[in-house]
Each structure stands twice: as C-alpha cells, then as structure tokens.
Design goal:
The protein is an alpha/beta fold and about 280 residues long. The chain has six helices and 14 strands. The mean pLDDT is about 95.
C-alpha cells in the first residue's frame, strides 16, 4: 500500500518560507492499494497538486474514490480545483456523510455557485457518484480492500477510516478531540495494530488544547498516547495548526519520539509504502 501526503495542515493554507519543509496545504492524502485501487482522503488545498500528478500518471483515464472525513472548509476547499473532475473519461466515487441536515452532494455543490465560482457542480464533465455512509459501516473497494468507517468526536461530526488490503492496515483520524477523561474509543478501534496511524496533532501543548477543547482537535501528547495504547507500528502526526512554523512542528516530533519512538511527521511530498521497514523518515 503506497501512501502520499499532499496537504498536512489544518484550518487554512499557510504557504511561505516558514512552512516550506513541512508544507502549508490543507488535508489531502492519496493511497494506491495492492489491488490497484486509488483512494483519496479529503480534498483540502493539497488535492490541486495531486490532480495534476494523477493526470500525468494516468493520461487515459482516472478511476478513484474520494473519502471525505467531514466538510469543514479545510477538508473540501481544494475540490473545485481538482483538475481530473474536468475529464469526461474520469470517474470518482465520493464517500462521506450528511452534515447539519444537508446531503453530502448538496454541500459539495454549494461550492460551485456564484459568487464563489463561475460554474456549477452539475456541469462537471467527469462521472461523479456521491455515496453517503453511516458510522459503523464497512465498505469494499476493488477486490481486496475494505474501509471501516467510524464517527469521531469533532464539532458536527467527522469520519475516521481504517483501510485494510492484503495484510496492510492504515488508519486515518484527521480531526479528533478526545474526551477529558478518556480517549475516543472509535479512534482506538480504528487504530488497533495499524501499520500506520495518521492522527490529529493540531495543538503544540496540552495547555493550548485545554483552552480550546471545544474545537475538536488533539495535542501531540494525545496522539502518542493513542499510538501506545492501540499498539500501532508507526504514528504520523497530522493536521498541524496554521500558527506553527516548521521549527515548532519539528520540535514536536523530537518530543513525541521520547514517548513513542516510531513517530514521524506527515510532510507534503512524503511517500511511504506499507508495511514500513525499520528505518523511518525524519
């Protein structure tokens, strides 16, 4: 299973010299499974460059699945600029859930209207199928890939995913605010024994996390403790606050490795293959 990171920030893109090593785009990851299935996790601003890359890799036709954890702006803002949706030969299945009483297709289509954009969702040439799922469901993609879906503790709801294919396990918990007295059980269940857990590490300290506990995000300490409890093989810190520069994020990595040595930073441009070997990226 190949994993590539295209956007690792939360809230808003923050391009610039202070974020160039870790990256300034918002949430987007793509996965290529052992049974040749393309899965995209979230459609933050990072999906724009992913789209350009996919068009070079698959010039004839792109078939993929886009899993939307939730529809906060930083997780969908790149979708209108994902160039493969303009190819009539391409086909995407968008998977997510209703939010605030609105269907997923309606929420996504609301981005494609005046005065925001000069074209409509319904006019996109690609074949786009929108599928709503319920927490607790398991969906099958291709022949040998399963995706378990769970609800995470985040304002308005957020889906976490456990993706399994031919013995490799990847868990994605992008926006999660654990409870004051315990970890979210759904995160522990999704992450249990995973080869790689991608976990929210928005806050640089527990003090900051406690000040904004209603935001639905985690501090890096919680991510490392979840990794220990769930016995994952590797932890990737993700969804960094836009207020953190590269030096601050890299300092968090050093502290995290004191608790959970097999911790890495999700960086834009990072590519991993599961299962991972003994040597981890810096």
């Amino acid at each position: 299973m190949r994993i590539r990171f295209w956007g690792v920030r939360g809230t808003i893109p923050v391009p610039g010299p202070d974020t160039i090593r870790v990256g300034g785009n918002t949430s987007c990851i793509d996965i290529y499974t052992n049974d040749q299935q393309l899965i995209i996790l979230d459609a933050g601003s990072g999906i724009r460059l992913l789209g350009q890359t996919l068009q070079k890799e698959y010039p004839e036709r792109i078939l993929g699945n886009i899993l939307i954890s939730h529809t906060h702006w930083d997780h969908i803002q790149g979708f209108p600029f994902f160039s493969p949706i303009w190819g009539r030969q391409n086909r995407f299945v968008l998977v997510g859930q209703k939010r605030v009483g609105k269907r997923l297709e309606e929420i996504l289509a609301d981005q494609f209207i005046e005065p925001y954009l000069p074209y409509k969702f319904q006019t996109l040439p690609a074949d786009i199928i929108v599928k709503e799922v319920e927490p607790g469901e398991t969906i099958v993609i291709g022949d040998n890939t399963t995706v378990q879906v769970a609800q995470l503790n985040h304002p308005g709801g957020c889906l976490g995913f456990r993706i399994e294919t031919e013995g490799s396990v990847f868990a994605y918990c992008s926006d999660i605010g654990h409870f004051d007295d315990r970890f979210d059980e759904n995160v522990l269940r999704l992450a249990q024994g995973a080869d790689l857990l991608v976990h929210d590490a928005h806050f640089a300290s527990m003090e900051e996390r406690n000040m904004f506990s209603d935001w639905g995000h985690s501090a890096w300490q919680e991510a490392t403790e979840v990794a220990l409890e769930a016995q994952v093989k590797c932890l990737a810190l993700f969804h960094f606050s836009p207020n953190l520069n590269d030096d601050q994020v890299e300092a968090i990595l050093k502290k995290s490795r004191q608790i959970f040595p097999r911790t890495i930073l999700a960086r834009e441009g990072l590519e991993l293959n599961l299962p991972l070997g003994d040597v981890l990226p810096d």
